[in-house]
Amino acid sequence: MNKMTDKTLRADRWLYMATALYFVMNGAQLWETSIMVPAWTAGPPASLFFFKTAYGLDFKLFWIVVHSVHEVFLLLALLFNWHIRQRRNIMIGLLVIHVALRIWTLQYFAPTLMQFMAMDVKPVVDPSLLERATIWKHLNYLRVGLYILVNLGYVFIFRLKRNHIIQN
């Protein structure tokens, strides 16, 4: 096996691992979005009990770990694919979109969710809180859909013919 073939196989492996981890992350997002989000956004502050019991939900640590591990793998995949120009260019574009989604998450989704999690549970539905929660939920659908599209972009990279794109 020559040196370029070895580098390309290693590039394939890292891209595969990063893409697979993206699917794992998207699976967790889909689970949370389809089961938990509709429940807690159904009628705040009454529906916020999901966060307040002795065993209340708090996915903060989970998402910090999942995103951190995934993003390390994305960067390593980019590093190992750097010699394949077309892959590199597409991966940089996808990484820019991913980072933009993460910034949106850290600027809007996480702080807003933390505000909801800090609220006291009351046996009523507050129309203004319901409206805020509904907006959050619908924007979250968009955000998760965009993450899935980015993930599919990484799948597309595998379809590129490597023998035409290796930079000498």
Features of this protein?
168 residues; mainly alpha; disordered C terminus
Short structural description:
The chain is 74% helix and 0% strand. By secondary structure, the protein is mainly α.
Describe the protein's architecture and organization:
By secondary structure, the chain is mainly alpha-helical. 74% of the residues lie in helices and 0% in strands. The protein has helices spanning 3-40, 60-80, 85-118, 127-157.
Mean pLDDT score:
92
Classify the beta-strand content into a percent band. Answer: under 5%
Helix content: over 70%
How many individual β-strands?
A: 0
Q: Kindly name the structural category.
A: mainly alpha
Could you name the ranges where pLDDT drops below 50 across 5 or more consecutive residues?
164-168
**Alpha-carbon distance between the two ends:** 17 Å
- Biggest sheet, open or closed, and with what strands and sense? none
Radius of gyration: 20 Å
- Overall geometry: elongated
The helix/strand order is HHHH
**Count the helices. How many?**
4
List the helices and strands and how they pair.
Blueprint (H helix, E strand, L loop, with lengths): L2 H38 L19 H21 L4 H34 L8 H31 L11
